[in-house]
Design a protein that fits this description.
The strands form two sheets. The protein has a four-stranded mixed β-sheet with strand order 2-3-1-4. Strands 5-6 form a two-stranded antiparallel ribbon. It is built from seven helices and six strands, in the order H-H-E-H-E-H-H-E-H-E-E-E-H. It is an alpha+beta fold. It starts with a helix and ends with a helix. The radius of gyration is 18 Å and the shape is elongated.
């Protein structure tokens, strides 16, 4: 269920999306991408983690309680494709279609920096994070709380190890 702030943001975002869609020929695609993705980033469902690569899981496991560097969120769908989908169409999406599409495609996998930067994700393990409680956004990064994500990663590594 949407809270009041989310509902208001979604209404405003949808109004702006319609304005941008109507005048999309007046802007470079890069501008549409920057403006629209920044607006969508304010949505609670933005950049929801849905999995972790085996390499990132191993890096977390090896680090134990030590701080770890070089882990990032990697988008499963390139944002250029997402922008093309919502702007390169005759008519704009409806509000429900827009947010359903964005929630489905604006998903990320926790990965090593090299996997993300080279745009080549290794094998990844999906996990349930429908409510976005794991690896929550923190600027362009994400929050790793040892008591929450650390425990989750440890249990996942044990489960995966038992299944391989």
């Amino acid at each position: 269920m949407e809270d009041q702030l989310t509902a208001e943001r979604r209404c405003a975002t949808y109004r702006i999306y319609n304005e941008l869609h109507a005048s999309r020929a007046a802007f470079p695609k890069k501008t549409l991408r920057a403006v629209f993705t920044e607006m969508m980033y304010a949505d609670p469902s933005a950049w929801r983690a849905v999995g972790i690569t085996r390499a990132a899981l191993e890096a977390y496991r090896a680090a134990g309680k030590n701080k770890i560097q070089g882990i990032e969120r990697a988008h499963l769908t390139d944002r250029w494709r997402m922008i093309e989908h919502v702007f390169e169409r005759e008519a704009p999406l409806t509000k429900d279609e827009l947010f359903a599409y964005w929630e489905e495609t604006d998903r990320v996998v926790i990965a090593l920096r090299g996997e993300n930067r080279q745009n080549v994700l290794g094998e990844w393990i999906p996990f349930d994070n429908e409510d976005g409680r794991l690896f929550p956004r923190l600027g362009i990064g994400f929050n790793y709380r040892h008591a929450i994500e650390g425990d989750f990663v440890r249990r996942l590594a044990e489960e995966i190890g038992a299944n391989t």
